[in-house]
Design a protein that fits this description.
Order of helices and strands: HEHEHEHEHEEHEHEH
Largest sheet: 6 strands, parallel
Strand content: 5-15%
Shape: globular
Distance between the termini: 42 Å
CATH class: Alpha Beta
Number of domains: 1
CATH architecture: Alpha-Beta Barrel
Number of helices: 8
Structural class: alpha/beta
Length: 254
Amino acid sequence: MTEDHVWQPLADALQRWRDSGQQPVFWLRDDDAIERTKPMERLVDLTADFRVPIALAVIPAHADPGLASYVDGRKHVRPVVHGWTHENHAPADQKKQELGPHRPAGMVLDELRQSLAKMDDLFARWSPVLVPPWNRIDAALTPSLREVGFSALSVFGPPKPAALPLVNSTIDIMDWHGTRGCRPHAALVAEIVAQLEAARVGHAPAIGVLTHHLVHDEAAWVFLERLFAETAGLCRWVDVDELLAEDAATPGSR
């Protein structure tokens, strides 16, 4: 199958949206930012070329001031909060978590307060959206997140009831349990098309693409460039703050 055939189902799905007089919404979240690197520059330049905003999940405890000066000059990049140290506190027989139930809640919340303070020190522009490392957080913590200072939570998967607004990623381009490179393009396109169809026939969340610039292989970069090209002018790629504002204005949303 040629690459053009792989992408044809997306072109067809976008045409169905266009025929209905609607425009789908996409957003991009990239995780594990610490410092300015060549992969970071490649992602920032690529998204700038296609005018795609990035919610850049920064690990506050390890963030370099050089990252802040680089990001502050690029208006399409919006830093958000990726835990505190991205350190696993779960036992070896459990899935990794930094914000799990394995430590006193007060200790975890204090670290999150430090995260907000560090972000405020580093960045001129950022959003108090919490992206839990490994997309996992103890549900018992979420009622306290707003009083700590967070405005929203972003994990992976379909949204579930939560104590504050959710802006989830829904498409992860990486094959974490296999090659640890980009997932097959055909599989990714099929997932995106399925989510586009669900959104077109009823109220569904924006399609959130999740990336990890530090571990991208060449296939991941090729996929992103083709995705941005295929969707250009046919969908809206929105900033995380815009997405939250639109969700708040939608009847029945959180």
